[in-house]
TrEMBL record:
Keywords: Sigma factor, Transcription, Transcription regulation. Residues 102-153 form the RNA polymerase sigma factor 70 region 4 type domain. This is RNA polymerase sigma-70 factor (ECF subfamily). Residues 8-62 form the PhyR sigma2 domain. It comes from Enterovirga rhinocerotis. Pfam families: PhyR_sigma2, Sigma70_r4_2.
């Protein structure tokens, strides 16, 4: 068991980063990674010897995320009271944090399939082939989704600010 844990442990930070990027919630990301680790340990015997362990772990995490999304869709929307309080607080952040927030919001606004490809390839540095295995799609689909995601992000981030309207008497 220590040998298996030694193989999996170096991948935990990347799994956590990807989970956080998908959920934008630390506690939810930790739970998702924990579920992924539990599933990988319980199904270790199903893993292909010589296969890409990193891609296998990301596949498990991604599938658990999709299952959770489907479950939440069936159960309906739940709102945490702490999030409502945070949103109601006045924003007093430096401009650089606002830019980062704008980029994160733009990434979050991408369709789920484009966001997943962008995170796997650009953030987690998976190859197109590994990302295709994780998502269960052809490499060409990964390439087209990534291209669309990058173009959409470019438009969202570089869009001119809306005009300031003022009342004229």
């Amino acid at each position: 068991m220590d040998e298996i844990a030694g193989l999996i442990e170096p991948h935990v930070p990347a799994l956590r980063r990807y989970a956080w990027a998908l959920l934008r919630d630390e506690a939810g990301a930790d739970d998702l990674v924990q579920d992924c680790l539990e599933r990988s340990l319980s199904r270790w015997h199903l893993r292909r010897d010589g296969g890409d362990l990193r891609a296998w772990l990301f596949t498990i995490l991604h599938n658990l995320f999709i299952d959770g999304m489907r479950r939440r869709r069936r159960e309906g929307l739940r709102v945490d009271i702490d999030e409502i309080v945070d949103l109601a607080a006045p924003a007093q952040e430096p401009e650089s944090r606002l830019v980062v927030r704008d980029v994160l919001d733009a990434v979050e606004s991408l369709p789920a399939d484009q966001r997943a490809v962008l995170l796997l390839v650009c953030v987690e540095d998976l190859s197109y082939e590994a990302a295709a295995r994780v998502l269960g799609v052809p490499i060409g689909t990964v390439m087209s989704r990534l291209s669309r995601a990058r173009e959409r992000l470019r438009r969202l981030v570089t869009a001119p600010p809306p005009p300031v309207l003022r009342r004229v008497k």
